[in-house]
Specification:
mainly alpha; Four Helix Bundle (Hemerythrin (Met), subunit A); 6 helices; 81% helix
């Protein structure tokens, strides 16, 4: 399988992170403009400024892009290094990224936790499956050599 195939879900996840960053920046800017009278440059710089709900939601989603996706990036890197790329891991990678996209849409949109939480959990299970498949292959290859 060409390396580019395994990199496409990575590019999609990175793009999602940048999209969320842009949305967060816009939401924070709007929050600052709305509350200009209470804006204190020191509070903004040190994270003590109270952004509105939309900006807080976007910031929380942006932080979330650096939690489980770290294990995704590491898994892809190891799969590439160990030449363990195939349709199974590619499918799991895309499934994980799709859950991240859906999670972000729900979180930044209506933020219905009863919808968002299962999507997050499915993403966690998909990522766990990715790592289990990778582990089984690596351990299996090591025990046959």
């Amino acid at each position: 399988m060409p390396l580019t195939n395994m990199m496409l879900p990575v590019f999609a996840q990175v793009l999602l992170t940048f999209v969320v960053l842009i949305l967060m920046g816009r939401a924070r800017g709007q929050s600052l403009r709305q509350n200009r009278t209470s804006m204190n440059a020191r509070d903004v710089a040190f994270g003590d400024y109270q952004y509105n709900d939309a900006a807080l939601k976007a910031a929380n989603n942006f932080k979330n892009q650096f939690e489980m996706p770290v294990l995704f990036y590491a898994g892809i890197a190891f799969a590439l290094i160990l030449k363990q790329t195939d349709v199974v891991l590619l499918s799991l990678a895309w499934a994980f990224v799709l859950t991240r996209i859906v999670h972000a849409i729900i979180h930044l949109g209506p933020n219905v936790v009863s919808l968002r939480a299962p999507v997050y959990f499915i993403g966690v299970l998909v990522l766990l499956a990715f790592w289990i498949v990778l582990m089984v292959r690596v351990v299996g290859a090591a025990s046959t050599s």
